[in-house]
Amino acid sequence: MTVALEAQGLGKKYGKRWALSDCTLDIPAGRVVGLVGPNGAGKTTLLNLAVGQIQPSAGSIRVLGGRPAEGPAQLAKVGYVAQDTPTYAALSVADHLKLGARLNPSWDDALARKRIERLRLDPGHKAGKLSGGQRAQLALTLGIAKRPELLILDEPVAALDPLARREFLQGLMEAAVEHSLGVVLSSHLVSDLERTCDYLIVIVESRVRVAGDVDDLLASHHRLTGPRRDPSTLPADQHIVSESHTDRQSTLIVRTDAPIHDPAWTVGQVGLEDLVLAYMSAEQARPTLEAVR
């Protein structure tokens, strides 16, 4: 398996606080990867480490076989669209394309101009006069026309209205297919990930909670509903992700590859949003064993 990003025991510490800790990942190349978690979970820290903007405090990280930002060849492999989809307000759309051509040895000018034309962006307009959606599309154009092997995006649609967000993601997916582009997309909007991603990583409180192929994850997670019971009585191969209890009923989300035969449980499917929320809320929602009893 070709690896787009490989992390071993990766961590970043600011003062006494770990923004990311003990992160071990193998992200396959050529996939559209959704990176999700609550604000402050460590998503931006991981992406900044991946593009070489910051250095790790512990562990190691390699991207497309090399150390992040280690020389021109490595820089050319990775495109990056930061959280505020940065553009230069005083520069025109055409100026941005000229700048992209000067800074990137593999720049595809025909691709950039074709995309700008399709988006109906006036080359003479200053970036500062564009709408938020238009600036995001300009930033995406710069990232794609660089012709990277991997494009990393840090919550690029968080501030956009629903229509602009849909258009941005549609353009991203078209580029990923047309140019065989690997993508890592950070977002806290699970609905966006459902439409775009085939690989999922959930980070909570600076640690990776789960990572894997979306279809495999959905197939191995189940919602169990039945009479209230002590979760510790479940078979050892049923890993409890989250649980909730009323006086008479227990509802569990479990991960297992084995069939669930216990007739006391009603077994239901878990959607992507349910899966993400289960991992995000697991630490806060799980009661003590004494409370269950």
UniProtKB/TrEMBL annotation:
<keyword id="KW-0547">Nucleotide-binding</keyword>
<dbReference type="InterPro" id="IPR027417">
    <property type="entry name" value="P-loop_NTPase"/>
</dbReference>
<protein>
    <submittedName>
        <fullName>ABC transporter ATP-binding protein</fullName>
    </submittedName>
</protein>
<dbReference type="InterPro" id="IPR003593">
    <property type="entry name" value="AAA+_ATPase"/>
</dbReference>
<dbReference type="InterPro" id="IPR051782">
    <property type="entry name" value="ABC_Transporter_VariousFunc"/>
</dbReference>
<dbReference type="InterPro" id="IPR003439">
    <property type="entry name" value="ABC_transporter-like_ATP-bd"/>
</dbReference>
<keyword id="KW-0813">Transport</keyword>
<dbReference type="GO" id="GO:0016887">
    <property type="term" value="F:ATP hydrolysis activity"/>
</dbReference>
<keyword id="KW-0067">ATP-binding</keyword>
<dbReference type="Pfam" id="PF00005">
    <property type="entry name" value="ABC_tran"/>
</dbReference>
<dbReference type="GO" id="GO:0005524">
    <property type="term" value="F:ATP binding"/>
</dbReference>
<feature type="domain" description="ABC transporter">
    <location>
        <begin position="5"/>
        <end position="230"/>
    </location>
</feature>
<feature type="region of interest" description="Disordered">
    <location>
        <begin position="223"/>
        <end position="248"/>
    </location>
</feature>
